User: Fold these one by one.
Assistant:
Number 1:
Amino acid sequence: MAGEMTLPHSARRERPVFPGRLLRVYFGSLGRSLITLVFLLLAVIFGPGAVKWLLLNATFFGDADACRLNGGACWAFIATKFNLILFGPYPAESLWRPILFLALVGAVAVYGLFARRSYVWVIVLWIIADIVGFLLMSGDLPGLTLVDRARWGGLPITIGISIAGLASAFPLGVLLALGGNSKNHLISTPCRLYVDVVRGIPAITVVFMTFAIIPLILPKDIVFDKLFRAGVGLTLFTAAYFAEALRGALQALPRGQAEAAASLGIGYWKANFLVVLPQVISASLQPIANISIAFVKNSSLLIIIGLFDLLGSARSSLYDGNWQGFYKELYLFVGLIYLAICLFIQFYIASIERERETRISR
Amino acid sequence: MKTFKIACATALAILGIAAPSRADTLSTIKDRGELICGVHTGLVGFGAPDGTGQWQGFDADFCRAFSAAIFGTPKVRFVPLSDQARFTALQNGEVDVLSRNSTWTLKRDTTLGLQFPVIDFFDGQGFLIRKSLDVSKASELDGATVCIQQGTTSEYVVRNFFTSLKITFKPVVIESGTEFFSAFFANRCDVITSDVSQLSVIKLTSDKPDDYVVLPEIISKSPLGPVVRADDKKFADLVKWTIFATFTAEELGVTSANIKDMLKSDNEEVRNLLGVTPGVGQGLGLADDWVANVVTAVGNYGEIFERNVGEKSPLKMQRGQNALWSKGGLLYSPLF
């Protein structure tokens, strides 16, 4: 089993590249030469225009009139609106707080890449960073002024809600998957029903329902915060996907594993946590990465309930009468930030996967 | 079945208890120490966060006005709301008042548990044209190609307008969004039609905003104003009369700049409005200097208009229908 898992991986591994090999890679056969030529042609057709718009004719300093005069990309717009794009309407004098939060998350991210083995510990660090960030942003610490949550926004919201949401959706998904796999129908039926129902609803509907319905059914003092409600909505939504991803691996796992644990006298929960789940989770790391990436991107739906996530606060910078018509630059910039976050998730989980595979095959 | 009935009854009871009575919005606001105002998530000139994260714009300034009437100085928490969430948020008490470009219609006024106390902005469909066309009136647009947004009432309105003038036009129907105005800038049509406030923004997205002009004619009605909950007449009165106060202040020439001198004025109307002669706050449950505070904080209607959407702003909208009744507009305040 372990041998099978490592085989395709080692075949995928790249070998050192020499000039001769490079030529063979790109022009080795007729097919390869054609593909290379097509790409070169595309670069010749689109390259100069792109470079011209992105760099040569671009405006880096100045105002909107300077941008219109130069005709290229208006990076001056991004520079002027930088704080609003990244941090939304957060009070300017306290901006160091979200910046510190992002730095904290960044530090954990870098640490996570180096400490791939202790990913449980890294997950704990993510959660700690998120809680500290939450306290920093709200100002619930001694010596800090309180900042109303209606003024939170931007990248900290996207990252904060992603960490908190994924950290709560995953355990929920595990429970739903185990429940759905249970022999007791009183447990398995509701779990499967939940997963099927939620997977049949668009994320935006779930977000809007939690926004509109929670205040109606709960006393308003308990749950009145939009951020919290949005987080609950996305968490409940994502948990169903996690459950489904894990259920697949759970069903693929030979029953013998759980039975062997039981025959050793290990109880249900202990057997699941020590024997079943580690195998199930490592077998479903790729879908977990997919769902995490989807969560980050789904957080951009929060603007519908008036929460300024990264995309929302970026768009709010478009509504300045003095800077009209620079949405291309903005979407490009924000797209790059999303791309960086999602590439990181993909890269991080892939590195854990590699780590586990080499460990299992040893 | 019996258990089911009991469960339903219990659920209804809980819902009934949980839906709190908020009939006294003014006391709630005073206890809280700030007004919670629902604003647009982003609309040029009307409500959008500035570089420091503070909400600015025409609608945001009226939030400040309501708050200044209550507290003396503006204490507002701005809650940005999308089109889809705005009425729900007001209904469930998340905001005290909506000040975000909502059109007053019979259906909204009567079926949502909400009320529209007054119109603070008269919007309506107009025309944006190239200056090079050398047209100053819509009636000179004979034979013009007109870009219209698909699926809006504007197509119907514009057809009626041209038919009634007995002039011909060529409609180009385009899906709404960016294509709509890029088609205009790409010369696919001579004229583009939409609400005037939107046209003024579209104009700014072009490379050369000065090459275009919004024609003075308005050919449809789009009455915009603040919204409050229907169950609180007292608070609706406060919102309504705050807006009337900004109209009346402009009428009497009271501005944020001359308010100190105006407090010493001999004009009985001015003395009455600004509370020098007591009585103006009584019926609303406010202090007598509330109008003076509103004008000090945000100015009169003309100042609010010019600063956010008028000549002093990038939008450069004309007063048009939003001028005082005495100057050919529709702003008409009852008596203080």
Number 2:
Amino acid sequence: MSRLLSSRYAALMFVALVVIVPGLMLNSSFYLRVGALIFIFGFAALGLNLLMGYAGQVSLGHAGFIGIGAYATAVLPTHFGWNIFAAMAAGVAGAGLIAYIVGGPILRLKGHYLAVATLALGILISMVISNEVKYTGGPDGMAVPRLEVFGFRLRTAQHWYWISGGVLFLGIVAAQNLIESPTGRALRALHDSEVAAGTLGIDAARYKLIAFVVSAVYAAISGVCFALLNGHITPDSASFLRSVELVTMVVIGGMGSILGALVGAALLGLLEQLLAQFHEVETLILGLVMMAVMIFMRDGIVPTLQRLLFSRRAS
Amino acid sequence: MTAPVLEADGVGISFGGVRAVDNVSFRAYPGRVLSIIGPNGAGKTTLFNLVSGVYRSDSGRIRVNGVDATGARPARLAQLGLSRTFQNLQIFGRMTALENVMVGRHLRERHNVVLHLLGVAGGEHATREASEALLDRIGLLSHAHEEASSLSYGVLKRLEIARALATEPKVLLLDEPAAGCNAVETAEIDELLIALAKSGLAIVLVEHDMKLVMSLSDSVLVLDQGRSLVEGPPNDVARDPRVIAAYLGVAAEGDLAGGRMPGGTHAAT
């Protein structure tokens, strides 16, 4: 089992199974929608994990990039007559560009200052979305045009379950590629010892910026999928709470673990649904679960399980 | 003599009111070993941090390979051909031994994030091969795929040297490479450094093991209280009354040359 979790291809097999088996078994569009949401936010958390778990930087404003992806998909075709595919690409590229421009000065900050700066960035984006009523519909949100491929309208939860599952799978492949590449090694080196990485020629500022841009692109792609799945978006998708949720997914699942982001997204997504009927105590129980995970599995769920399984095998 | 690859001219730094390093100058030449010794707290490691860009010197100049590198960051110095190891290990603990060395190949690799995401970056094979060759050279190939944090102190000391060598430096700064190593490991490091110097690398060494320093060095620089005390061939330095006074407070000839160093916690006695 530990080999299964640590080996690259086994992790991919695991994800494929997690996508395919429920996809074939579930036939209620409600559950398929929950699954799709888990994949979509798992995808964003995966990108944020590259920043937090590998580059060692925290962002409290990542939902802002989800918002950019989501609103570009809705606003550009509706108000400017863009082709929807061009709009999707523009949303993703725009998020990457904004991350690149603001990332330079922001990533010079350390610790709390960095957290506050990214927090401000996220809030800024969500304020723009809420206030530009003319284009975004303000707090009421706006409709997203349906995606059409070869005359086939992609609108049911089932369609988006498979699409977002596929996107998540590709996102995991790309993240694995990156981590095993020279860029990934540079990031991991920076995380372990910035001073040693520097003496080997690694430019810390440059690599933190790369991780920030990549994670923003992941978030924006997740935003595009979210908008297309929902068919309607509100500023909530870019809210501060969403950002905190993403950070929580990464931390609970396990920083620096590819599967961790997915497990964190699944846990949060499922708990939210399970607790929906106990509406009054929902947040309370969610908070208790998070505290329990943080107390008993400080490194997050996946790394802790890996260690437990590994040490049992060794003994 | 050939041109020096590393020149430090009157460098210094203050921490608060303490002048930790004051107006120190030295030159390192290709194929030669310069050792920096001195009592604990003399400023040896601080001098290393100044020269390698970890701290910024507030006086003087530093040139690497003839290029002015005063105030340059470590990454820039690495590009110019300066690499170093650390007294307190700075290993990438969550990476394997091989990956640690592969990070050292950073400057020799091409960097395109999009290609890395797609998994089609070339050159990975060359990096791996060069890194394995280095691990083999320092005798750690059998540990290649073990996580660095699980390796012993002596192994990690050598791994840091391999990692620094992976950058293909012109000048290598070694901060106590033999500290905490047993006699066999120390002998191995001794042998490795001789071979490296022979291949034309300039080596600057901070070390408490006087036997190692005396046998290895072409030149010895003695620091005391942040200032340069004496520089010269090892035997001259060991006999210098000022050096003996700095270490012992009183003249006690013979102790230094005999390989004893009361000031050094890791002295090989």
